[in-house]
Amino acid sequence: MRTLSRRERAHRRLPIYRHRLLSSLSTLPTARQWVFCLAVSVVTLATMAVIGFATGLYHLTPTQPGLALRMLTVILIPALGEEIPFRAILTPGPGEGRRPGVEIGVATGLYVLWHVIEALTFLPNAAPVFLRPDFLLCCAVLGLGCAVTKRVTGSVWPAVLLHWALVVVWQTWLGGVSALG
């Protein structure tokens, strides 16, 4: 039996990724799954709060102006812009994947690495924050929380909402806007 080349293996994976993307965009969680996502979100945000406040990454600030525009902008970038590749495409849904834990670990690791790449390339003003170990640990916690909601529900929407809410709160009340310059 012939061994498939790397290119052939990658070509075979494309239909899986396309299916994951389309399925996760068109699937909405059930009421019970939304409750599960809320619980995951509470644990994720509490863990991030402990890390962020303990290290000084987060600090209470007066409300930053431009909340409406920020809410609109953040839903597109980073919420949708990062959740589509890292959760909708790379994270398996219910019953998908032979090794979902490995796929979730890889997707979460790539998500964390993405923030390093952003800081070193097209967001140099964010480098002082994006390269902090505590920020990257918070990224890993958020990535894992979002991945768990996608894995259980098959939907990317709970991850998008969690990501969106966290970034809006961080930028508006926890020092994110001033930290990014």
List the helices and strands and how they pair.
Blueprint: H1 6-26, H2 31-55, H3 67-89, H4 100-120, H5 127-130, H6 133-153, H7 157-173, H8 176-180
Mean pLDDT: 94
Q: How many alpha or pi helices? A: 8
Proportion of beta-strand residues: under 5%
The computed structural class is mainly alpha
Largest sheet: none
Question: In whole angstroms, how far apart are the ends?
Answer: 57 Å
How much helix, percentage-wise, in residues? over 70%
Q: What low-confidence regions span 5 or more consecutive residues with pLDDT below 50?
A: none
Characterise this structure:
The protein is built from 8 helices and no strands. The radius of gyration is 17 Å and the shape is globular.
Question: What are the key terms here?
Answer:
181 residues; mainly alpha; 8 helices; 76% helix
What would a concise description of this structure say?
The chain is mainly alpha-helical. It is built from eight helices and no strands. It has helices at residues 6-26, 31-55, 67-89, 100-120, 127-130, 133-153, 157-173, 176-180.
